[in-house]
Amino acid sequence: MATIVVPPVTPSPAEDADALLKAFQGWGTDEQAVIGVLAHRDATQRKQIRLTYEENYNENLIQRLQSELSGDLERAMYHWVLDPVERQAVMVNTATKCIHEDYAVIVEIACTNSSSELLALLLALVSTYRYNGDEVNDALAKSEAKILHETVTNGDTDHGELIRIVGTRSRAQLNATFSWFRDERGTSITKALQHGADPTGYSHALRTAVRCISDANKYFVKVLRNAMHKSGTDEDSLTRVIVLHAEKDLKGIKDAFQKRASVALEKAIGNNTSGDYKSFLMALLGSGI
């Protein structure tokens, strides 16, 4: 479930565009007015506002936002105003420029979207059409659990079979395979992948993929908790999870976070952020703070 709150009756795109223009004018930007509009409009409404703003005022709304805002708020708002597919493409493109550090971004997007969403986006894991239903072939699950075990125990660093299985099977089928692996081998596939050196980085990336597929909420709770570590806040990771999931499944992530961390996600974020950036994230979380 999504967390953003869109009023049942909203102003027209022209009225919203006008409100944004007024927020940009005068001495300094009225960031709260910008948040009040854009954080409470869905993707379709935001696109209409962008088009109307450009038509009425002959300037690009995204570029104007980038010039009016700064810091974490500017980066978060930039991604939020983009169309969802465009947003993910931008994030993946950025991640590919520093692949050794940000491969997890690619894996997250590849493994937590539906086939129809992925067909509009990427290659590799996302290039194959993945069945989204709940039907499971138990014999196939058992057979491929054996293949995974042989791949891992043989120290095969190219992980060809593992990539094939993870990249083509449905979420339900993969969870059945992972369950067979755990029951037969007494350990999870993610733990099995931790053993042995892997200079290519495949094992780490594949563990991320498996975690995203088997329990996406649990995975993103870990991302969020790591982003709010005592050593400092990772605003990029925090922004990525909130912005990508606010219109999709952030409610489930919030519930899982509360259960795991024994504290509300809103409170945790409130303790680790400040100012207009904090207000924007809280709005996307559906909080009145």
Automatic annotation (TrEMBL):
Single GO BP term: response to heat
One GO CC term, this protein: cytoplasm
Keywords, ordered alphabetically: Annexin, Calcium, Calcium/phospholipid-binding, Metal-binding, Repeat
Signal peptide residue numbers: none
Entries under Pfam families matching the protein: Annexin
Coiled coil: none
Gene Ontology molecular functions: calcium ion binding; calcium-dependent phospholipid binding; phosphatidylserine binding
Xref: InterPro entries: Annexin, Annexin_repeat, Annexin_sf
PANTHER family: ANNEXIN, ANNEXIN D8
The protein's name in its UniProt record: Annexin
Organism: Oryza barthii
Lineage: Eukaryota, Viridiplantae, Streptophyta, Embryophyta, Tracheophyta
